From TrEMBL, chain A:
One of its GO terms (cellular component) is nucleus. This is CMP/dCMP-type deaminase domain-containing protein. SUPFAM superfamilies: Cytidine deaminase-like (SSF53927). The keyword Hydrolase applies. Gene3D superfamilies: Cytidine Deaminase, domain 2. GO terms for biological process: tRNA wobble adenosine to inosine editing. Keywords: Hydrolase. GO terms for molecular function: tRNA-specific adenosine-34 deaminase activity. Residues 5-121 form the CMP/dCMP-type deaminase domain.
TrEMBL record, chain B:
Belongs to the cytidine and deoxycytidylate deaminase family. ADAT3 subfamily. The lineage of its organism: Eukaryota, Metazoa, Ecdysozoa, Arthropoda, Hexapoda. Residues 151-307 form the CMP/dCMP-type deaminase domain. It holds the Pfam family dCMP_cyt_deam_1. This is CMP/dCMP-type deaminase domain-containing protein. GO terms for biological process: tRNA processing. PROSITE patterns: CYT_DCMP_DEAMINASES_2. PANTHER family: CYTOSINE DEAMINASE FAMILY MEMBER, INACTIVE TRNA-SPECIFIC ADENOSINE DEAMINASE-LIKE PROTEIN 3-RELATED. It comes from the Eukaryota. GO terms for cellular component: cytoplasm; nucleus. SUPFAM superfamilies: Cytidine deaminase-like.
């Protein structure tokens, strides 16, 4: 897949949060939301620290964007329709439906989500209207390796492999 | 003249609900055409069966018996017509003189029946093996719950309805630990706060709070609502059990919500490992029967039971469209 330099930088940022999640022993998924070329939300999964299995990075970011819009006096609906989402893993069924509800402009993701993916495991777009454009496959192997490392329970914050993998792909 | 009226009062209608089943538990079984021949001499039946099983086993149809009286199931009909059947048998090395030259095609069950109702239909077409599963039978015949259990479920749905009334919202959700019949947490629609704060999502966060987690500040009227509910419902318990390994997410919990959860909420309940979800009114966007069945998506690592239509009329009066 092809991404512009700016988009690549956004994905790089999302990956930073995925690595942070792994270090924090959370499912390593990182995400940023961009509105008019500005990052308006960023973060990672916080499921374990919140003991709430719904605290995926996308849900966390949706709330940050809401705060941002309130702060700036922006119309929430209109703003979300211009939001581009960059996330290291295909959004799950729950999150992609939330993003469809808000009508975000586009979603760019890294690897497929074999466990919960909103396209891969159950195609949410097949049962509802969804204006959102979705494309995946950016640094997919790296994103998948992060997940594998997490599910293996391997020490997440080993710097050499991190540096190596990231150096190779970007 | 008053008799019928009094009779009505003495027998309050018992609550009803409808299990939202996987297609395989209620749909008619798909059929497949097979060739059926007639054995010339009944004494050779076992010989014919052994020979056919060795030259032409049908691994995909092991739920079917090979023989019915003098009739024998030969093999599934492909694209070739009936005349080719004997040729195929000959090619495989089967002694076609053992059966009549006349072969017919019949439709039989393509997959094994899961429940008795399906079995009874397809067994008439061709003898079929059937292993009854007590749980599936109860679920598919909607007899999982006793009258008193139904009453208990209705009681918790009434709590959800009361929350809608108290808060003037259309959707609420109550999470219950059925082992100790206690409300662990509840929530109601607060989407004006965050678009993610659907009733079910708020209730899930309340459960997280009971486990020393949670992210959203508790609604300012939460305690007030709780005391109103306690006043109205005698013996209503709030709180969670810490016995055993302690609670983990919504494991083992039942959820009562006035309106059919959307895909986001239905999947949130998968992530949270809920055990059962009861709802009142169906919704166009609903994900537990209406637009899809998220609770039983095959490739998910957790499934839960879903029941529709509990106190539907009352829920409709307060509810819907999230
Ligand atoms: Zn998600
Ligand atoms: Zn919802």
């Amino acid at each position: 897949m092809e991404l512009t330099d700016t988009e690549q930088q956004f994905m790089e940022k999302a990956f930073e949060y995925a690595y942070e999640a792994l270090a924090a022993k959370e499912v390593p998924v990182g995400c940023i939301f961009v509105y008019k070329d500005e990052i308006v939300a960023l973060g990672r999964n916080t499921v374990n620290e919140s003991r709430n299995a719904t605290r995926h990075t996308e849900i966390n970011c949706i709330e940050q964007v809401t705060d941002y819009c309130r702060d700036k006096g922006l119309d929430l609906g209109a703003a979300f329709r211009q939001v581009c989402v960059y996330v290291t893993v295909e959004p799950c069924i729950m999150c992609i439906n939330a993003l469809y509800d808000l009508g975000v402009h586009s979603v760019v993701f890294g690897c497929k989500n074999d466990r919960f993916g909103g396209q891969t495991v159950f195609d949410v777009g097949s049962v509802r209207q969804a204006p959102t454009r979705i494309k995946g496959g950016w640094r997919a192997e790296e994103a998948m390796n992060l997940l594998k490392e997490f599910y293996k329970g391997v020490n997440p914050s080993a710097p050499p492999s991190k540096v190596k993998v990231r150096g190779k792909k970007t | 003249m008053n008799a019928p009226k009094r009779l009505k009062l003495e027998t309050p209608t018992k609550p009803t609900l409808t299990p939202i089943l996987a297609d395989e538990l209620y749909k008619e079984l798909p059929l497949i055409d097979v060739y059926v021949g007639k054995i010339k001499d009944p004494k050779t039946t076992s010989k014919v069966v052994v020979e056919l099983n060795s030259v032409l086993p049908i691994p995909e149809l092991t739920h079917l018996k090979r023989v019915r009286g003098k009739e024998i199931l030969l093999f599934p009909k492909g694209d070739n017509d009936e005349d080719d059947c004997l040729t195929v048998l000959k090619q495989k090395g089967f002694d076609v003189d053992l059966i009549e030259s006349q072969v017919r095609v019949i439709a039989v069950a393509e997959i094994p029946p899961k429940v008795r109702k399906q079995y009874e239909v397809v067994h008439k077409l061709w003898p079929c093996n059937f292993h009854s599963n007590a749980y599936w039978e109860k679920l598919s015949t909607n007899s999982l719950f006793s009258d008193s259990e139904l009453e208990q479920h209705a009681k918790f749905m009434r709590i959800a309805i009361d929350i809608c009334d108290i808060c003037s919202v259309r959707v609420s959700a109550v999470v219950v630990d059925p082992v100790i019949t206690s409300v662990v947490g509840f929530g109601f629609d607060q989407t004006s706060d965050y678009p993610t704060k659907h009733a079910v999502m708020v209730a899930i966060d309340e459960v997280a709070r009971s486990q020393k987690g949670g992210v959203w500040p508790r609604h300012q009227n939460y305690d007030k609502i709780q005391s109103l509910l306690k006043m109205k419902h005698e013996n209503l318990q709030f709180g969670f059990s810490t016995s055993g390994e302690g609670p983990y997410l919504c494991t083992g919990y039942s959820v009562y919500t006035t309106c059919e959860p959307c895909i986001t909420c239905a999947m949130a309940l998968v992530h949270s490992r809920a055990k059962r979800v009861f709802y009142g009114v169906k919704s166009e966007k609903g994900a537990l029967g209406s637009s899809c069945k998220i609770h039983i998506v095959e490739n998910l690592n957790h499934h839960y039971e879903a029941f529709a239509g509990l106190l539907e009329t009352e829920c409709r009066a307060v509810s819907c469209e999230q």
